[in-house]
Amino acid sequence: xxxxxxxxxxxxxxxxxxxxxxxxxxxxxxxxxxxxxxxxxxxxxxxxxxxxxxxxxxxxxxxxxxxxxxxxxxxxxxxxxxxxxxxxxxxxxxxxxxxxxxxxxxxxxxxxxxxxxxxxxxxxxxxxxxxxxxxxxxxxxxxxxxxxxxxxxxxxxxxxxxxxxxxxxxxxxxxxxxxxxxxxxxxxxxxxxxxxxxxxxxxxxxxxxxxxxxxxxxxxxxxxxxxxxxxxxxxxxxxxxxxxxxxxxxxxxxxxxxxxxxxxxxxxxxxxxxxxxxxxxxxxxxxxxxxxxxxxxxxxxxxxxxxxxxxxxxxxxxxxxxxxxxxxxxxxxxxxxxxxxxxxxxxxxxxxxxxxxxxxxxxxxxxxxxxxxxxxxxxxxxxxxxxxxxxxxxxxxxxxxxxxxxxxxxxxxxxxxxxxxxxxxxxxxxxxxxxxxxxxxxxxxxxxxxxxxxxxxxxxxxxxxxxxxxxxxxxxxxxxxxxxxxxxxxxxxxxxxxxxxxxxxxxxxxxxxxxxxxxxxxxxxxxxxxxxxxxxxxxxxxxxxxxxxxxxxxxxxxxxxxxxxxxxx
Length: 569
Fold this sequence. Notes:
Layout: E1 3-12, E2 15-20, E3 26-30, H1 37-48, E4 70-77, H2 86-89, E5 94-96, E6 103-104, E7 112-121, E8 127-131, H3 134-138, H4 147-153, E9 156-157, H5 185-206, H6 208-221, H7 260-273, E10 280-283, H8 292-301, E11 312-316, H9 320-325, E12 331-336, E13 341-345, H10 353-358, E14 367-371, H11 374-389, E15 400-404, H12 410-419, E16 423-428, H13 436-444, E17 449-451, H14 458-465, H15 468-481, H16 484-494, H17 501-506, H18 510-520, H19 531-542, H20 551-566
Parallel strand pairs: 3-11, 3-12, 9-10, 10-11, 14-15, 14-16, 16-17
Antiparallel strand pairs: 1-2, 1-4, 4-7, 5-6, 5-7, 7-8, 12-13
């Protein structure tokens, strides 16, 4: 089957420049909104689809600059004998190096023989499809793919409007699943004639007054209408074509009446049956119209779990379900560096499969804040909730996601996102520095790290930095959820029974704050070790007290949220 080996896009919509070598099977484009994922699918469709014309306008040119033409070049490999025909395409056959992604103008040993088709649209908006070859250009030669060959590699698009694939229209997938034909032309023409005649007989009986008036008027005006005017169906409006023949269920209901998700699943299955003739599929927002379990079913139908991919599929998704179901070598992160678009394969960043399974939603975000654990996640989420009530932009509005770093793995997980091109930061405790070497590599690439004052856990930082009233409220929250005795026992354990809950309630000294921080972070009985527990106190106690608390906590939290909001600009 024909396979796309390389895609080169220049000056098309939001893309100034993009070069990408996709894989053979599933290519799922992910990333934040407006990263031009759909534009990439559109570019493939416009360049390879069997069409003689297309409608574009000035907004399709990058930055509306019509002085620079749109060019979309797609290199296709795994060519059939018809595409390797020297007489037809010999001058245009090129060599592709799969290791480097480089193209050579001459086929050679160790290189795959390929063809490159280029769509060019200049200011006159007239499209031109031509094969690319330096040799042909030097000889003043130019040609495109033959129509049959264009049709053979034309991709199928599973979009919101899939009905045409459930009728025997010209571009329908039904015409590609077998070479069977039906001699319908004569029968369809007879049906149209019979329909006109049958209606005419009924109309003559039902419209006698109107017909008589027309007949009389025509005679009076000398208009030649014959001996009797008839009401019949218009000969031009009543006609049947191949598209008139469509699929129906056992009960006679057209399959076009199925829900969108059911139609997309059915057509995906038909596409597999037609893979030998049309092996390329485009799916924009694969989750559209589907429940999570049917998203998984559609992914399976496209061959995502098969060792030998039956199709080359290009899809986009904003669904964590889809991201979680796919492997790291099937996921491609689309990013812009300001001058060009880059497409990173997730697996090229190392062992990131665990991160994908744990935090699939983060791969759809603009920025990723990796927190050391549940306590830090709850703290940021609770403060974010309070900030939203004051009119500040929320995490989600800024396109940021929070990821659990898994304790000592926090910098390893953050490094994985960083290598994928995500804007990444880390928030961690200072009581233990995890993986110093990975931390150094993370910071060397310019990503920020946020931490508390030296040797402090998050709980210790809170008890040391909050105002007296807020620190006591934090303590009473723990008592309310546990019990006086439980908290008193933990305080006594943390200070060798030198102090008690009662003494701290009466006098919150600096020593008392330090002991409370130590008692609250007990490994198996910590007061705020769950996201929900810390989220509540962060929203109701910590955030409202932020203006009164000590500088270390205030400065770090302010830095985290400034970094988050800066990412939305």
